[in-house]
Amino acid sequence: MADQLSYLFCTRTSKDLAEKIAQHYGRELGKINFQEFSDGEFEPVLDESVRGGRVFLIGSTFPPADNLLELLLMIDAAKRASAKSITVVIPYFGLARQDRKDKPRAPIGAKLVANLLTAAGATRVMTMDLHADQIQGFFEIPVDHLYASTIFVDYIRDLNLDNLTIASPDMGGAKRAKNYAGHLGAEVVIAYKERKKANVVEEMFLIGDVEGKNVILIDDMIDTAGTLCKAAEILMEKGAKTVRAMATHGVLSGKAYENIDNSKLLEVIVTDSIPVKNNLSSKIKVLSCAPLFADVMKMVHEHRSISNKFII
With 70 as the cut, is the pLDDT of residue 311 above it? Predict the structure, then answer.
């Protein structure tokens, strides 16, 4: 059983998700006073005592960088307020695409963020569907890496599709697609893409047969949606019956909404790890990850195993 009180706080841009998490968790969100200066500087102040307690700080670190800075300042505030433990709940871990030095003189942004969170005073990190699994190794503190598959697999089963095939929009997601297919008893196909620059797909080729199949593309994030839309087009050209897409994080930048609306995709399913303007496209459906995070947070607080929350 838990041996200390728990407190929940959130960053301003993640408040909608945090309120859902708090409701499932069974506690109200703690109050934070934000002082803002005319030059854009801000100061978050925890408005209640957290001395000796377990603090959960909820905030996705999508752009702008102020979201990350706000979270770091909140960690520092909790540490200086004598919290016994500080669990940082980051549904979407920003800069995760910068997980290695893939060109000369490039930074490794994900490692830098891990260092910043630890230096600020975080004692545990909880996140979901990192762009690269090895980012867990960037931390010297415990990391709970959750998977949206616990949400998506049930949704796929409820669709009750015949001739189901799981597709990966690139080679990097092949393992993820294979794992989904294993749980669903489906086949796997892979789209091989070549890029000339970020967010622009030059060529794409399909590995596998989709004739007459109901295909679901699986990915960890949708940014401009260029890759998914191109993959959907090729899948339909190769004879697919329907094409859907599922991605954990709906970044949806640039012309993403326009691209999705004009694509061959029947529907696009994402979680609310990032606020999504799903009213801008009738094809986008949002599933909440709040129950998943609330359950795991409670298990962590009560020192219980969370292994039954992992599917992939």
Answer: no
Domain holding 120: CATH number? Answer: 3.40.50.2020
Distance CA 105, CA 110 (A): 15
pLDDT, one tens digit per residue, over 27-86 is: 999 999 999 999 999 999 999 999 999 999 999 999 999 999 999 999 999 999 999 999
Tell me if 302 is assigned to some domain.
Answer: no
* CA-based torsion, 61, 172, 153, 159: positive or negative: positive
Give the integer Cα–Cα distance in Å for 98 and 278.
27
Q: List, by residue number, the catalytic residues.
A: 193
190 lies in the same domain as 201: yes
- Residue 142's closest CA among 80, 86, 62, 72? 86
- Whether 103 shows a pLDDT value over 70: the answer reads yes
* Distance separating alpha carbons of residues 280 and 291, to the nearest angstrom: 25
Q: Is 131 helix (H, G, I), strand (E, B) or coil?
A: coil
Integer Cα distance of 168 and 101 in angstroms: 24
Q: How confident is the model at residue 198 (pLDDT cuts 50, 70, 90)?
A: low
Residue 20, classed as helix, strand or coil, is helix
Total tally of structural domains belonging to the chain: 2
Q: What is the DSSP string of 202-229?
A: EEEEEES--TT-EEEEEEEEESSSHHHH
On whether the CB atoms of residues 237 and 177 are closer than 8 A, the answer is: no
Model confidence over 265-289: pLDDT tens digits? 999 999 999 999 877 788 999 999 9
Total number of residues shown for the chain: 312
Report pLDDT digits (tens) over 222-236.
999 988 998 999 999
The 3-state DSSP class for residue 73 equals helix
On whether the CB atoms of residues 164 and 246 are closer than 8 A, the answer is no
Residue 237: phi and psi, rounded to 5, are -65, -30
How many Å apart are CA 36 and CA 20, to the nearest integer? Answer: 26
This prediction's pTM: 0.93
Final residue before a domain boundary, out of 146, 161, 177: 146
38/132 same-domain check: yes
